[in-house]
Amino acid sequence: MGFKGMYFVLITLSIYLIQHTDAFPRDSSVTKTETLLELHETASSTVKGSPVQVLSESDVKIPGRVSCPYEEATEYAICQEHCLPKGYSYGICVSETCSCI
Predict the structure, then answer these.
(1) Calpha distance 79→73 (Å, rounded)
(2) 76 is in which domain, residue-wise?
(3) How many domains does the chain have?
(4) Cβ atoms < 10 Å from Cβ of 66
(5) Hey, which end of the chain has fewer CB within 10 Å, N or C?
(6) Digit-coded pLDDT (tens) for 33-89
(7) Which residue, among 54, 97, 57, has the nearest Cα to 74 in the 3D structure?
(8) Residue 5 lies in a domain
């Protein structure tokens, strides 16, 4: 049964063990499972009670982004102050948001 046979057995055993391994969740709080019916009931009850709110693009704020007043690419001191401490060499205002270069 030479080396080829040993490699074949080793590879076959590895494939078998990988396919039959049960993975554990990274976070122990994830172990609780909920049925689909419970999720559906909680989702439908929250949707019925709350009014729908439509947000425009200007209302949506992304965390960590600094807004500025210019639509076109413009030098702006607040963008410079925001970008330079982060290690970027330049900061400009584009589409009402500071961009670091």
Answers:
(1) 11
(2) 65-101
(3) 1
(4) 16
(5) N
(6) 555 555 555 555 555 555 666 655 555 666 778 888 888 888 888 899 888 888 898
(7) 97
(8) no
